[in-house]
Amino acid sequence: MYYYLIIALQVYCTYHCYTNRNNYYWYFAIIFLPLIGCLAYLFINVVRASEVNAVQDTIISAINPSKKITELEKKFRFSETFENQVALADAYLEAGHYDKSIEHYEASLKDVFQNDFYTLAQLTEAYYCSSRFNEAVACAEKIREFPKFKKSRAAFLYALAMEKIGHTEEAENFLEGFNAPYSRYQERLELSKFYIRHTKMKEAKVILQEIVFESERMSKSSFRQNRQLIQKAKELLTTL
User: Who has greater pLDDT, 49 or 30?
Assistant: First the structure.
């Protein structure tokens, strides 16, 4: 059994090496060092290559976001599936083309997908970013009863949209749900700003002091990740 597995692995690696035109010395490694050679080939030319490609795709998307959109548009025209349409809507949302993202999210919400949590959550964000606050609230309320809603970004934007349309008490309740130590710094910073906007300076000061206190005790990686939010918290604190 072991022998046949090695043979199969050699066949796969040889075929992969040939079709991808990798360096010829891999043939010697695959044939004369069956197990070690195959494992080394797979790690360097299959596993690592996929990781490199993923990084390259991220860099290309950042430099030229229209390329990603163009490719997804072609993919959707070729096959108008729910997954392809939502992926295209996501790309439009990421690029700031909110009207187009809304168009595709709305169009995808039909049949068995009309109550899809992810799509409705994304649509809530697109509405909010378009300053269509009433629609953002209405969309979020369709998924409000889902257990995972309360801690989602959709719930955060729902709270902000609720404030925009004058429902400040309910907005405060939702924002306070994100107030947990050593986490959710963006939401907690926004909660402190909410308190300031509504002249609750004492409550705002407490949250900002907690963020600064936690920043002095968090790991270096966590501090780097939240550096800008921590700096904003410190700046706000000096104004109170």
Answer: 30
